Amino acid sequence: MDIDGITLHDLHIEDLQDPLHPSSYEEHGLYRLFILLLPEKLKRRPLVRSYGFIITDTTVYCYDQEHQGLIVFPGGMYGIHQMLDEKIDPIMDDVEKVTDKIAALEEGLYKKVSFVFMEKWHDLKKELSRSELLLRKAVDTLERFIIKTKGTKHFPLNEFNDLHEHLERTLRSVAAASIQLDNLYYYYNLRSSDRLNRSIYVLTVISVIFLPLNLVVGFFGMNTGGLPFQKHPAGTAYAFVTMIFFAVILAAAILLKLKKE
Hints:
The protein has 261 residues and is of the alpha+beta class. 64% of the residues lie in helices and 15% in strands.
């Protein structure tokens, strides 16, 4: 493929044709290759798309994925800025929506509302993790592009610095939302562990109370002679009172220990 008498490298052509090519910037002879991979929509399966440009000393070309070819990009560098700016703004709006979802998830967790926490947490985490990786790579690539191109003629440095700042701010928001999700997960696990410990503790207390009672019942249930109260008319009542006495003593001892703690 030739443009302005310049032959593009075959690997660069393949990079442009790949709709999911990672963000990259390369200088090759008389032209520069600039590709930016951005998430178009944050959802369970984030939609992503790469935007490829070939930049010469006189012309800026944009690769049209639909028609599989390079087209002269109107506006040159200003056109690249305007296009990328229009793509980054919706991402910032989506991050705000995801942040609202996390806030609702957190509120429901604190209020102990019945819902499937882990399913919602996993969906949000998956959204943010992939988007964070894409944005981090895009921020680094755009920064490198600005550093390498700022000395050229008619390069809108302020506009691209502003674009880089927007993209960096979006990345920080995504990273902060991801950290907030991790904190929620930690709190959820902590609360689940506390519930489990309480349940185990209650079962332990019940076992401690009923274990001696089972021992007393087993003792009086033996088929041997000479058992206490065996021939007494009120032997069953005495045995029952003995069991209750043991239960009360054990319950009092446990309550006293809990009070001291």
